[in-house]
Amino acid sequence: GVQYNGKYYAYPSLLEPSTMLFYRNDLLETYGGVSEVPTNWTDFVSLLETIKTNITNASVKGLYPFDVPKGIALGWGSWGLQMSSTGGLALTDDWTTSRVTNAGYTQLASLWQTLYADRLVPLSSGVYTEIINDLCLGKLVMTTAGSWSIATVLNEYPDLVDQIGISAMPTFDGNQNQATATNGGWVYVISSECQNKELAAEVIKFLVAGDIEMPLEYFKGASYSKAAPRISVAAAIQAELLTQDTVPSEWISVVSSVASYAPMEPIYPWDVSVAVSSMLENVALGNDIASEIALANTTIINLIQSNNLPNNNPRK
Asked: Where does residue 215 rank: exposed (0-12), middle (13-18), buried (19+ CB within 10 A)?
């Protein structure tokens, strides 16, 4: 999780994919006429169009085909989409160059514009971290959501467990064996002002790096909605799944698969992500894509220069 001068100072206590696809099997069958979700965006959008048409023909109100992160959440909820679309994020790894002129960003912006122009997603939504509620309440057929939403479904909507499907996010080439999300950056750290760093380290070791029963208890309590970074704990979770019937095993397999490809969250300044989310929001309003990408590119270049980012990159 944290590396400096070739040494690791922290590793994740858990892996929590930020962007996955959740869908209602019953609504997908009713309005889409399918039981499986396409893995590429072209076919996925075509399915959304079909769902929208059938919802309209059935005179159903308040039901949308899909939903995506909005507002602040779009800044971090789009990281996985950026990686699968462009092979990276808005900055090069050395923080010297903006990447938003990469053709993949034009594809992503075009997708975003289509989703809104064709009313395939609602214009406004609640908080992204709670977006799964709209799916469970029958307001959405499909939605992006974080893996933590599994716990919400199990705890608050147990009667819907058999009607919920989960998969990795679609990609432009249909290949989901790549980064389609980031893993939440959750780590334990020891303050430099700690009076007894050795004992503090023992506490952390006890919580996450000792007897596997301790972290296993946490993953059980979280309804296995997060993946384990330790091989032994991950194996113990898989063994538990064979003897429990509370959490669908395919859900856990998808979370583990997405987490295995997902990197940790980027550590460059948040303003870079705001530039990308603003670009996506503006094209969603119908603004010219090339102009908005050019504006985002200029903004990021200015951030690189004003913050001297190449010389402030701790991972260079």
From this structure: buried
Asked if 274 and 73 count as a contact pair (C-beta separation under 8 A), the reply is no
The answer to whether 205 and 287 have CB atoms below 8 angstroms apart is: no
Q: What CA–CA distance (Å, rounded) separates 314 from 316?
A: 6
Q: Under a CB-based contact definition with an 8 Å cutoff, are residues 258 and 170 in contact?
A: no
CA–CA gap between residue 38 and residue 138 (Å, rounded): 21
Name every residue whose Cβ is closer than 8 Å to that of residue 116 and which is 6 or more positions away in sequence: 123, 284, 285
| 7 confidence band (pLDDT: 50, 70, 90) | confident
Give the tokens for residue 199: 């004992």
Rg from Cα positions in the chain: 21
pLDDT digits (tens, 9 = 90+) for 33-51: 999 999 999 999 999 999 9
Q: Give the closest residue to 47 by CA, choosing from 37, 57, 62, 55.
A: 37
Going from the C-alpha of 192 to that of each of 50, 119, 269, 313, the distances in angstroms are 57, 51, 23, 21
Q: Which tokens in the block code for residue 256?
A: 């583990």
The secondary element (H helix, E strand) that includes residue 35 is none
- Predicted TM-score (pTM) above 0.85: yes
Please state, in angstroms and rounded to a whole number, the distance separating the CA atoms of residues 16 and 259: 7
Helix or strand holding residue 161 (H, E): none
